Amino acid sequence: MTGARAKPSLVVIGNGMAGMRTVEELLKLAPDLYDITVFGAEPHGNYNRILLSPVLAGEKNMDDIMLNTREWYAQNGIALHAGDPVVHIDRVRRTVRAASGLAVHYDRLLLATGSKPFMLPVPGHTLPGVIGFRDIDDVATMLDAAKNHRHAVVIGGGLLGLEAANGLLRQGMEVTVVHVSDTLMNQQLDKPASALLKQALEVKGLRFLLNAHTAEIVGNARVTAVRFKDGSEIPADLVVMAAGVRPNIALAQQAGLFCERAIVVDDTLQSYDPRVYAVGECVQHRSATFGLVAPIWEQAKVCAAHLAGNGHRRYVQQASPTKLKVTGIDLYSVGNFIGGPDSEDLVLRDPRRGIYKRLVVEHNRLAGAVLYGDVADGPWYFDLIQQRSDISAMRQRLLFGKAAAT
């Protein structure tokens, strides 16, 4: 008796946004091509990690941020193993083995293992009450701490750190943000915009220690304080490490895939093993790694096209804007805001209205923009940067936005 030929098997390691977006794109292109199996470390369906900050701040709940429920997997014929992470990849036999012992064969493998919070390796960093800000469990820990404790310290004054600090403040904690640089969000903002941001957040009730180097986290059964290199210390019942992330590549390394800072992929998101693809925060493409959602959505599209056998797309890196998810604070940054020897700055300051704009112009093209307080024209500036538009005709009016300039 001759049965229908079995479908090839696609196994996805990682049930987060990057992996599932790739699967969604694949289902649009070739809904019946593969038998799909998904392994995830967390015991949930796929949720929007970007919206953890509003959940922490009490503006959204867990149901609001679910992207793919368990029913969605079932409807699409996808076998989901949530809460059962893959612990071993055998590339010779083309099988993966999960923590439960379950083994699944693959014809194509997609790695979407994401990243891990970087925990400062100072004494005390493993104490109870010291966490990262990465997943639903971290948010639950923070909400729990806010009910029973008073002093929170957030280490890291970047995008994620400020969102965590704002959420904890909204939950009634006294929050101090500790940052190693003298500028908040120093990778996205120049000093004047950062100063405005700091002022606005201080009005909300946050405290800041800049140029502060953490030396030790103090405590016995639980964290009680954070001590700095100069010997000073501040009380802490909860410490949130938001000092960056590291690509989660241990599994790929153990499988012998070529990795540098992350899993090295080509323009089709293929690793050095042609059966293995990777997307998201665990990949390195042309020596860059990724943390923002826009480039990862683009990776998902390109990778899905190749998995579907429509192999004509190439992944091209592009600038991505940064926005802060703190209610009442408008901030937008994109492109090269530092400038270079051939660039000029166009600056508008209106301290009374709390507005600051800085546009970096190079060879009659917009190279970067930092907007604070009035961000309505952010997407338009972003388009000008992307299109490499000649702005010489509207240069005098560029700062006043699209309506004035066009």
SSE blueprint and pairings:
Layout: E1 9-13, H1 17-29, E2 35-40, E3 46-47, H2 52-56, H3 62-65, E4 66-68, H4 70-75, E5 79-82, E6 86-90, E7 95-98, E8 103-105, E9 108-111, E10 115-117, E11 130-131, H5 136-148, E12 151-155, H6 159-170, E13 174-178, H7 191-204, E14 207-209, E15 214-219, E16 223-228, E17 233-235, E18 238-241, E19 245-247, H8 250-254, E20 263-265, E21 276-278, E22 283-285, H9 293-307, E23 322-323, E24 331-335, E25 343-350, E26 355-362, E27 365-372, H10 378-387, H11 402-405
Parallel strand pairs: 1-2, 1-9, 2-5, 9-21, 11-18, 12-13, 12-18, 13-14, 20-22
Antiparallel strand pairs: 3-4, 6-7, 7-8, 10-19, 15-16, 16-17, 23-24, 24-27, 25-26, 26-27
Helix pairs in contact: 1-9
Largest β sheet strand count, sense and barrel closure: 5 strands, parallel
Strand order of the largest sheet: 5-2-1-9-21
Determine the structural class based on helices, strands and strand pairing: alpha/beta
Q: Quick one: overall form?
A: globular
Q: What proportion of the residues form beta strands (DSSP E)? A: 25-35%
Helix content: 10-25%
Average pLDDT, rounded to a whole number, is 94
Unreliable segments (pLDDT under 50, ≥5 consecutive)? Answer: none
Rounded to an integer in angstroms, the radius of gyration calculated over CA atoms is 23 Å
The number of helical elements comes to: 11
Q: What is the count of β-strands? A: 27
Straight-line N-to-C gap: 71 Å
